[in-house]
Amino acid sequence: MTDRPTRVQRLTEAALPTRVGLFRAIVYGDLTNGSEPVALVHGDVASGPPPLVRLHSECFTGDVLRSLRCDCGEQLDQAMAAIASEGRGVLVYLRQEGRGIGLANKIRAYALQDGGLDTVDANAALGLPIDAREYGAAAAVLVDLGVRSVRLMTNNPDKPAALQENGITISDLVPITALANPVNLPYLEAKARRLGHRIETSGSARPLVTVHYAQTLDGRLATRTGDSQWISGEESLRLAHGLRASHEAVAVGIGTVLADDPRLTVRLVPGESPVRVVVDSTLRVPLTARLLSDGNAPTIVATTNRADPRRRREVEATGAEVVVLEGDPAGRGDREQLRDTLGEPGNATLLRGGGARLINGKRRGGPPRRVGGAIATLLDRHGIEAVGELDIRRLRDALTFRRARFTQLGADVIFDGELEPQAESVA
Fold first, then answer.
1. What CATH number corresponds to the domain at position 259?
2. What CATH number is given to the structural domain containing 158?
3. What number of helices (H) and strands (E) belong to the chain?
4. Whole-structure pTM value
């Protein structure tokens, strides 16, 4: 080994209950630089098959303050949840803030990024290393724990190489991908393009679909009269606007347009408004609807051949594009055809929201990438169900999620997860 196991020594340890499970927190002293790496150990990792391991470098702004500029806090949460879910594993928390340049220099680099530099060029402009981290102490911690072979959770090609150089065998690489937000997307793209980090992509030309909606505590997305405005709080609304900004198109059903007259634009966060799509089989959309009349973003109205041609011309006269889908015998548009239309350049990702019909639609051509919802602390016993009949007759056939989590946001609880690829899912 390049670094001998005596590079670190145990200082203290104790049980650490967390929201995702019980860990053993072991604090080490790094005899080389005086830092204090921490191993969060769950289950028996010294025997059995290679455990799941994450090497996580300290990020005060992301881990503690939940900054939107990076994906560190989300990766920390995902790693701990994945380890707890498997029943065994190790998270090694390394005290190397800002890819090893320290907190003050990281904030200096942020200031340069505010001026237009990416994360790599900002470090270079300060005369600092692009990535000053090293993983010899992490390897020594793993050896002390009796771990010689690991399934490593990372997108960073430097980590497996460094562990292998220090005598740790990599049995498998497990991606750990936080979903982008409008603020950190350039940062993630720069890490992929310039540092070789892996990012999750889709081989399909069809849109990557995200379903998002707000519901009451008892699962209602509107009252019995159809009123759905102000279910979620201000913080949740900002999240919804951020999701809009991170997608090229946002789709709602005609019921949502008739009930709420939404604008579907980005106003509460920085970012561009997406293309607005209304699924309207008979062109009931009012010509005075704000998404037709405000001119703040392009609008597509997806209809069927059941719509009156004269009505189509009236809608087109507002500046909207009308797409005629084949439609099924019940008059509903072919969702797969709509997704193919949106799969053209510039419309690669689709955010679906609004009413239960859009949310409950059966899978056509692949599952959504992501499902998210704001659960408000309201009760409305007789309102409209957010998720209705999915024709699931056995629990083993129920929808299942990966990388799922609940997060408190203001007065609301946010659910965020990705459907398992094999699931018969909503879309």
1. 3.40.430.10
2. 3.40.50.10990
3. 13, 18
4. 0.64
**pLDDT tens digit sequence for 42-55:** 999 999 999 999 99
Candidates 7, 54, 99, 133; catalytic one? 133
Q: What is the pLDDT of residue 149?
A: 97
With a CB cutoff of 8 Å and minimum separation 6, the contacts of 377 are 217, 411, 412, 413
Same domain for 165 and 244, yes or no, is: no
Co-location of 222 and 165 in the same domain: no
Do both 80 and 171 map to the same domain? Answer: yes
The answer to whether residue 390 is domain-embedded is yes
Reduced to 3 states, what is the DSSP secondary structure of residue 114?
helix
More confident residue, 330 or 66: 66
Instruction: State how many domains the chain has.
Output: 2
Identify whether 263 is a catalytic site residue.
no
Question: Is 89 contained in some domain?
Answer: yes
Q: What is the mean pLDDT of residues 285-293?
A: 94
Domain extent for 357? 208-419
Catalytic residue among 71, 77, 131, 280: 131
Angle between helices 158-165 and 136-144 (to 10 degrees): 60
The answer for 127, left when phi > 0, alpha when psi is -120 to 50, beta otherwise, is left
For 415, half-sphere exposure in the C-beta direction (CA atoms, 13 angstrom radius) is 17
Decide if 261 is catalytic.
Answer: no
Residue 276 bridge partners (DSSP): 250, 299
Residue 383 has pLDDT above 60, yes or no: no
